[in-house]
Amino acid sequence: MKDVKEIANWCLNCKDRPCKELGCPLKTNIPEFIAEIKKENYKEAYKILIENNIFSHICSIICPKEEQCEGSCVRGIKQTSTKIGELERFVNEWAIENNFNIKINKKEKNGKKVAIVGSGPAGMECAFELLKNGYDVTIFEKEDSVGGLLTYGIPDFRLPKKYVNNIISKIEELGVNIKTGVEFGKDIKLKDLIKDYDAVFLGTGAEKSSIYKLSEEQFEKKYNSDEFMKSYNENKYINELGTVIVIGGGNVAIDSARASVKMGAKKVKILYRRDREHMPARETELKDCIEDGVEVKFLTRVVSANLELGKLKSVNCIKTEIKDELATDIENTEFVEEADTIVFAIGLKPDKGLLEQEGVKLNDWGYIDIDQYGQTNIKNVYAGGDNTGSRATVCRAIAAGKRAAIGIMKR
């Protein structure tokens, strides 16, 4: 890394602070922490970051900063943006190397109880804010470990699990009650939580994979990205993947492809129906993926699967073109790609049936309908994260958890 002060001095300390006000979902005090770096006051810089966001280190690693803070940097209009992500990561890693911690102050108990359903970034952030302010908080998690997407979705080669465990430890130190192996809608019902708690936060995420039928016949070696990445993250590697085709173009498709390589796949290809310009995956993630040996084919739609004795042998594809922002098939461009394993990475949605069964109202796009503080149609029931919007990145999920906590405290 270049001299950190040199990078920090690139910041103009703008009055309007678009990096903070427009770019950062968590409204991080960006010019302020960078000003402390300029003075080599790394303790104060760390304090500014952590007091606003205990997930600061994680955000510095996985945030799409080129779209958010750095994408809003004034210097980026005519020159290159200030490398805000690098500076944030530097400060957090300086704190680790120097064993520097910030004491989290906790208010006296106020006698109020809140249930958090789901322990992903939204749920953990909501719990953290409430615990600090004297609430008794119980987290209900269906998996064996907490962390949600951070534990089961994002691979270790992108986000070391020790950083996730560090956040979990901070929340545990505040006295949270965690109940794992408890499934919402099955082991616990919303109506019962409403009776037992003063408020409920639903951080259940998006659990239903978007897939489409490739064959009338069922076949093995077909996965959705959620179960595929969970297998990788739990070190339960899938054997004999052979040639893997990943369908999709987001960061999850990139993660699935790279995880395939690390699980021993013979060959890995990403087939994406749109072009690079329309591909949502981050440039840096795509670059790492290609360096891992993954082949990426744009403007390609997988149409159907070819089986032999119930086993996948290949997929039928067709070339596409972008017309009026839509991917359209090009006639007479069909071709075949060899494949032993298929991974669908074309998006996740909330469990509509479960949520409607629990009485939670959804919007026209199939996500939970909420107000500015995350309150649902049910009094004292809040929601946030992947279950409330399709672009709920980790940092946006954290921001949603914080907003919901503020809403609960305003009751």
How would you summarize this macromolecular structure in one to three sentences?
With 411 residues, this protein is α/β, with parallel strands linked by helices. It is 35% helix and 20% strand.
Task: Give the ordered list of helices and strands.
Answer: HHHHHHEHEHHEHEEEHEHEHEEEEEEHEH
- The largest beta-sheet arranges its strands as 3-2-1-4-15
On the 0 to 100 scale, the average pLDDT is 95
Q: What best-fitting shape do the alpha-carbon axes yield?
A: globular
Summarize the structure in words.
It is a single chain. 45% of the residues are buried. The longest helix has 17 residues, at 394-410. It contains 15 helices and 15 strands. The chain has helices spanning 4-8, 18-23, 30-38, 42-52, 56-62, 84-97, 121-132, 149-153, 161-173, 190-196, 225-233, 251-262, 283-291, 352-357, 394-410; strands at 113-117, 136-141, 177-180, 199-202, 208-209, 222-224, 243-247, 267-271, 295-297, 300-308, 311-323, 326-338, 341-344, 348-349, 381-383. The strands form 4 sheets. The chain has a 5-stranded parallel sheet with strand order 3-2-1-4-15, sandwiched between helices. Strands 6-13-7-8-9 form a 5-stranded parallel sheet. It folds into 3 domains: 4-97, Alpha-helical ferredoxin (Fumarate Reductase Iron-sulfur Protein, Chain B, domain 2, Orthogonal Bundle); 113-207 and 350-410, FAD/NAD(P)-binding domain; 209-344, FAD/NAD(P)-binding domain (3-Layer(bba) Sandwich), CATH 3.50.50. It is globular and about 65 Å long. 35% of the residues lie in helices and 20% in strands. The model has no long low-confidence stretch (mean pLDDT 95).
